[in-house]
UniProtKB/TrEMBL annotation:
Phylogenetic classification of the source organism: Eukaryota, Sar, Alveolata, Ciliophora, Intramacronucleata
Residue ranges annotated for the G domain, each copy included: 5-64
Protein name: G domain-containing protein
Family matches, as InterPro entries: GTP-bd (IPR006073), P-loop_NTPase (IPR027417)
Signal peptide range: none
Residue stretches spanning the membrane: none
Organism, scientific name: Paramecium tetraurelia
Gene3D superfamilies to which the protein is assigned, alphabetical: P-loop containing nucleotide triphosphate hydrolases (3.40.50.300)
Gene Ontology molecular function terms on file: GTP binding
């Protein structure tokens, strides 16, 4: 088994959590992410740990994660989806691999090439790695999985799972914390739902 870690950031509502849900065969989400969550995605023999970040960076938003890969989600539904691109890129520009993910491609008027060119121009980088996908389209998700795992293998940013077991304690504590936080976030989501109903 091989594994890697991805820090997933980008504007609130870009479709980050829905994309992870789709990768895990879960339904798309309608609630904002409150706390940085730690999710596991399996693509064949590659285990990917994805840090799903809330849209607005706060104290809880830990950018200094051990993830060697950063993914910046772009909301293709927006007329100007690259408004905060520079800001997000600045947060992760030290990562060895940065990829851009155009989310909600089922709902866009932007073309792949024009988004790629704009990213290149705004950030002044030559080799922009851009993937388009839609959490609503199974075909798109299957293609995304294939492209993502190929990209990760090619980049060399993957590691033997044995390495992970040497740090079993650290990883175990992290996962326990995560389970606790996930419960909290579910609880808070329920509260939000109740408040909405009362309004
Ligand atoms: N049409 C369409 N809507 C999506 C897609 N992904 C997410 N959404 C919707 O966009 C909104 C924000 O999604 P969410 O995953 O919470 O975004 P996040 O804040 O980046 O985690 C939700 O209302 C989702 O239902 C997609 O691929 N296509
Ligand atoms: Mg979210």
């Amino acid at each position: 088994m091989k594994q890697t870690r991805i820090l997933l950031i980008g504007d609130q509502n870009a479709g980050k959590t829905s994309l992870i849900n789709a990768l895990c065969n879960e339904s798309i989400t309608t609630f904002p992410t409150i706390y940085q969550e730690f999710r596991k995605v399996q693509i064949d023999k590659l285990k990917i740990l994805i840090y799903d970040c809330p849209g607005n960076p706060s104290n809880e938003y830990n950018i200094q994660q051990t993830a060697p890969v950063a993914a910046i989600a772009i909301n293709l539904e927006h007329q100007n989806p690259l408004l905060y691109l520079e800001y997000h890129h600045n947060l992760v520009k030290d990562k060895p691999l940065i990829i851009f993910i155009g989310c909600k491609c089922d709902k866009t008027l932007h073309s792949y090439n024009s988004i790629k060119q704009q990213i290149s121009k705004i950030l002044n980088i030559q080799n922009v790695i851009l993937l388009f996908t839609s959490a609503l389209n199974q075909k798109e998700i299957a293609k995304f999985k294939e492209d993502l795992s190929q990209l990760l293998y090619l980049s060399g940013q993957i590691f033997d799972d044995d390495l992970q077991s040497q740090h079993r304690n650290a990883s175990y504590i992290e996962e326990q914390d995560q389970q606790f936080l996930n419960k909290w976030s579910q609880f808070l989501n329920c509260c939000c739902m109740c408040l909405k109903k009362e309004e």
